[in-house]
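From the pipeline queue, job 12 of 40. The input is one protein chain; the requested action is below.

Action: predict structure.
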Amino acid sequence: PPPALAYALLPVWIVSGALIYTSAVVIIPSLSFVVLGPFAWHMMVVHHLLGSSRYPTHIYPRFIQVLTLFVMPFGAAIFLPARWLRGDLALWLALVAPVVAAALSVLAAFFVWEKLSNRYQSTGN
């Protein structure tokens, strides 16, 4: 069974993961303000990368690992806590990395939304 501390940290990891995912769902669709046309498949990127988080990062090519740990840091809230549970990672990193990744994701989402939504034009604008 996991250590008792894991149960106390679980809400932090869940909230961090939810914030990271929600930020990605804000950032990627915001690209719709600038990327249009029949080849705008960017909406599926978030869902496919989230699906890739079901498996350990080390089974993927290096660029996917970097993508899921740093660009869209789903792995920060999933793989780093799991590595701590296995005893492969320090507790402070399993606690700090998801929170920092969530904070940076929320800031990025706010910035991207503010910048790209200003480009939106409609007949009512």
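Job complete. The chain has a mean pLDDT of 84.
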